[in-house]
Amino acid sequence: MKALIWDDLHKTKLVKKPEPKIIDARDAIVKVTMSSICTSDLHIINGAVPNAIKGVTLGHEFVGEIVEIGSDIKDLSAGDRVSANCETFCGECYFCKHGYINNCQNGGWKLGCSIDGCQAEYVRVQFADTGLTKIPDSLSYSDALFVGDILSSGYFGAELCEVKPEDTVAVIGCGPVGICAMQSARAMGAKPIIGIDIDDYRLKLAINKGYADIIINPDTQNINDEILKHTSNRGADCVIEAAGGKNTFQTAWQIARANATVAIVAMYEENQTLPLPEMYGKNLIFKTGGVDAIHCTKLLQMIEKKEISTDVLISKYFDFDNIEKAYDYFKTKCDNCLKVAVKYD
């Protein structure tokens, strides 16, 4: 089968690999019908993910059809259309039982990092009974493509903030995760929602689609003044940092009101500084970490009810044979690209 691998620093290669086989009784083999490219895939290619293994098939964001299941899989069958979780988790260890599946003692972020991922014609999914979710008949593969990663990440940010009705939520980064975070916060009753970005296209999208009530561009506006103006001089009740830029971590804690929660769902390539003397007295709560994507069934139901939609995220479709062009398109943000969808027909 064809597979896209991380060949070397800053390089990928489309190669031939053997089709995967069932190894464990909780495995499933999935025929990939559609996948996407994540910024964390770029982090791997740039050498910023220590656990990534050279030669690994990239990708962890996909949907497809089950073609084979292990003997211990009871609730899934060959022929099921499924959305994949970006996390591999056993469901049985201490962390899984407490909902912290990103810290699974037998899994974690493995697909497309330390084991072969989804940017191939077929993929072996470990712990398939926890890592795959049936797609309702009313939804398309495109509808469900981002449930197990990008949408889960945005929801995770709002969940970390424990958003309450009428909370003012500031979201730094109006890209795919930020858009999903804004929609998730809205579903939890947040109002107003403030979208922050230096990309005017993304800001306009956020306001025009109703994801944000207020938009701020720090390149052209004084962000601290604007935040105070819209929050009765207090600062935001909740801040979701979904950008991972050079200064966005500092912006996150600076625009938060005293006793606020700052959720960090962005992934950084450089260390960030926690200037405790400067923030002394703000009594901030910081929550950070990889996504605990445990709400995939709920998120699919929210999409069915039209409470959340990820349609706007797909900027362009590519055939799998052109996946390296898709990487270039995504990496350079051609045509204001948010996400790409790679088709395997």
Please outline what is shown here.
By secondary structure, the chain is α/β, with parallel strands linked by helices. The protein has twelve helices and 15 strands.
What does this structure look like?
This protein has 345 residues and is of the alpha/beta class. It has 2 domains: 2-146 and 310-343, Quinone Oxidoreductase, Chain A, domain 1 (Alpha-Beta Complex); 151-288, Rossmann fold, CATH 3.40.50.720. The chain is 27% helix and 24% strand. The protein has 12 helices and 15 strands. The chain has helices at 39-45, 94-97, 128-131, 141-144, 147-161, 176-187, 200-208, 223-229, 248-255, 276-279, 296-304, 323-332, and strands at residues 2-8, 11-16, 28-36, 62-69, 81-84, 122-125, 132-134, 169-172, 193-196, 214-216, 236-241, 256-264, 285-288, 314-319, 339-343. The strands form 3 sheets. Strands 3, 4, 5, 6, 7, 14 and 15 form a 7-stranded mixed sheet that branches. Strands 10-9-8-11-12-13 form a 6-stranded parallel sheet, sandwiched between helices. It has a two-stranded antiparallel ribbon with strand order 1-2. The radius of gyration is 20 Å and the shape is globular. 50% of the residues are buried. The model has no long low-confidence stretch (mean pLDDT 96).
